[in-house]
Structures are given as structure tokens and as C-alpha cells.
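Hey Z.,

So I finally got round to the succinic acid thing we talked about over coffee. Here's the setup:
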Amino acid sequence: MPYERIEVTPVSPVIGAEIAGVDLSQPLGNQVFQEIHDALMAHQVIFFRDQELTWDQQKAFGRLFGDLHIHPAAPAPEGHPEIFEVHADENSHRIVGPDWHSDVSCDEAPPMGSVLHLHEVPEPGGDTLFASMYAAYDALSDEMKTFLGGLSAWHESEKVHRAVFEHRSDQLRDGADTYPKALQPIIRTHPVTGRKGIYVNTAFTTRIEGLNRNESDAILDMLYAHIDTPEFHCRFHWQKNSVAFWDNRCTQHQALWDYYPQTRSGSRVTICGDKVV
Ligand code: SIN
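And the result:
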């Protein structure tokens, strides 16, 4: 794909590319916006270096791609409900996103993408792994694709949100006393590329509808092991002011906590998406 205004360098054969030649703190022209969108569609996760961003600038960049999501359970900084803080230091007992997941897949219409900016990073350590759900789907046998194509699975947030945010249900942002959960197709079709990908993850998916517990656990365990295949992955090493922008509809990610007691800190904006089909 020809790019005229940005430089795009793939970081693996199947997923991930570094983008150069753009300052995300400034308004983007139509062509640059379109090229960034094209690069995201082609590579599923894109990385930028040396981006000094305020929360307002990060939100403005995210809003180019859609409305911003407000997390149902995570605390947000005063006046910035759309900012999801990602922070770990010597006092932390856990981090955000240590298991493979697609962000908030428990929502009826889960987010299309997420933009994470880190302003403080450990050295070494603190990398994020990304996995291509297109590559994982493509590698399944035709028989398994057909079998999974007719199934849906429940994605539930209570366990993960209570653990990560030490949360009580009466503190949910919208005042509801239930944590979001949704029944999602196991194989989803990307609304822009038309490609198929696997849409179950270890953080949120609890069971396959219509199968008994043993059957459901066995199929989900098989899929989780399959998604863990290194050939479907890329690994991003953060620097101060790096940005990662991933497409939640066709990727999963996992944050590594190998840097304790160092500090790793930044903010994410999450872009609303459509109902999964
Ligand atoms: C997340 O799941 O959004 C956090 C990813 C990271 O900290 O690398």
C-alpha cells in the first residue's frame, strides 16, 4: 500500500508497524488521517515514537476515529472520564491487562480501538505483546472454522474488574449494580477489512453458549493455547512518549510485569465500536 505522508515499517510479517513522520499532538490533515487509518487496517497495531501528548491532545487524536469510551469500573482523573490510567510502581499489587485480551470485550458493542501513551517507562522490561486474531483464525483447519463459526461465548467483566480495580458493584460508573456481560460470536468479521478473526480471550470469556462445562472449557483452552502461538505475535518495547494504537476487533494484547519495582505509567483512550458480527 503506497503511503505519501507517513513512513510505515512493519515489525513482523503478520502484525504491527512503526509509523514515522507524524506529530499526534497537532491536528492531522485528511490525507495523514487516512494513511494512519489504512496502516492500522493493514497492520492491526501501529506504533509511534517521541509523541509528547497532553490528555486533551490524546483525546483529540482518539476522537478522529470515533466517540471515546468511558470505562464502566476504572477510576478516571478529575475532569477526564475518557482517560484510563495505566500505572504500576513499587506499591502495585497488580497491573492492567496481564492476560491476553481485547479491551472490554464484555460490552455489547466493544471498543474498536485503543490508544496507549506511556510517559514513564521501565528499562528494561514492560513490553506489550500483540497477537493477530486474523492469523490465528487463518491457521485453524476448515473443519474447526466451520464448527466455531456457529458458536457464541459469554464475555463477563465482574471477575476481572473486581480484581484489577478492587471494585464493588455499587461503584460502577453508570450506577448500575451489574457488571457488563455480553454474548459474542466466537468468530467475528471485521467491519472494514471483511477478514475473520477469533474473538475469545482469557480475561473476559467465561463459557461457550450451548456446550456443557467440560466441552466449553476444552474448546476455550484449545483456542487460548492456539492464540499463544508466537508466530501470530509482535512485541513492542516502549520508550518514554511511545504510543501504541491497536484495533481491538482483530487483535489481543498482554502487558508484561517483569519490571517490578520500577514505575511504568501512562494513559489510554478507548474508541467506541459496533456490535460484534
Ligand atoms: C491495556 O490492557 O490496555 C494495558 C496494556 C499495557 O499496559 O501495555
